[in-house]
Here is the input.
Amino acid sequence: MRAALRSPKRLRIEVLGGLVVALALIPEAISFSIIAGVDPRVGLFASFTMAVTIAVVGGRPAMISAATGAVALVIAPVVREHGIDYLVATVILAGVIQVLLGLLGVARLMRFVPRSVMVGFVNALAILIFLAQLPHLIGVPWVVYPLVAVGIAVMVLLPRLTTAVPAPLVAIVVLTAFTVIAAVAVPTVGDEGRLPDSLPGLFFPHVPLTLETLGIIGPFALAMALVGLMESLMTATLVDDVTDTHSSKTREAWGQGVANIVTGCFGGMGGCAMIGQTMINVKASGARTRISTFLAGTFLLVLVVGLGDVVAVIPMAALVAVMVMVSVGTMDWHSIRPATLRRMPRSETFVMVVTVAVVVATHNLAIGVIVGVLVAMVLFARRVAHFTRVVDVAHPDESTRVYAVEGELFFASSNDLVTQFDYVGDPEHVVIDLSRSHVWDASSVATLDAVTQKYAARGKTVTITGLNDASQERHDRLAGHLTGAH
Here is the structure.
């Protein structure tokens, strides 16, 4: 960040990136406030406090956090049934939970998200961003459509001439100037909701500190914490990939919690990372530091409080054009090319499609990712289970037969192991060689016990050899102790 402050070119990029994001945040925050059932000021102030706080405590530079649709959907029932005080208490408790989860290392779970789920997440995000623009394109004056087309053309063509100024900012200024000068009647930001005219103040929820209150807000706070962390960590991973840099996911996890606690203390609705606005900041504007995130929040407050009358006349067509370009830029087009689909394993493509379908159906990125991961785990376990086989390798003498087990032994693969031995036809002594295998869980040990017992029932003995150190330790500790018969 210090290097950016010493570089006029980099600082200009960060400042302009923050300004573009602030403009794009305004209608989004208002829309999410409506979804949550609160005054638009609650969402706008939440976006300000989230962005400014995460710029300081977050782990992923240039990532934008603000009020989001996913969080709005989770907390809407709290507002509807119990009011704004319980909402704020829920946001603060969710922040505390996120801090605890971050300190406990929940971010390390990101390593279990397969690439196919990540690709599905990105593609679903692109689709959701585009679908979110459709309400602004239906039932509107015909002039909206050419305005959107002009905005898209500016963002496509301007970067070929110069990158000194972010193309989205130019598109917004040009379209706003045209609609104002030509007095064109089109939907504007002001039509989305009333903008605040004062600064946010401290707000402490008036709720009884009882177990009953905890019972009301606890489930919603936990859901908000998990959804927020899921979207934030996935977004951080996406930005890491776009910028080819590494970020601290653990710091990002507890940083999101701190930001939500601060937001709750100012009466905000809470939030998490905003993927669309982050892509505007990182890809469209080229921002890379915390400066752009901090300024996005600062500009947002200045715009809605100090320049509300000016911001209110920005045509929604300009912001729709920006978000359509963000959608196009976010989509992983390579992943859906026919050549790529033919080359990819069907299971990988299936996981990606399931992730996209669930996200689009539920409009919840977190649910889609969880379902995608579960499907990927099931398919992986099914695929690996077929790799295990029992091979007859030797007959040292008439009374001995040696089997070799090849492959990984775990709950999915070990269940069929029992059926692969000739209990009746084998001689009195059987050797099972596990040097080309590994025992991963108690299910595998129980299966080996079952094999031994079946031979023992026929008066035959079994010797298990070739266990590596980890498998030997697990077998010695569990063998003979997994059923009530021992």
Observations:
- The chain is about 65% helix and 5% strand.
- The CA atoms of residues 264 and 476 lie 53 Å apart.
- The radius of gyration is 29 Å.
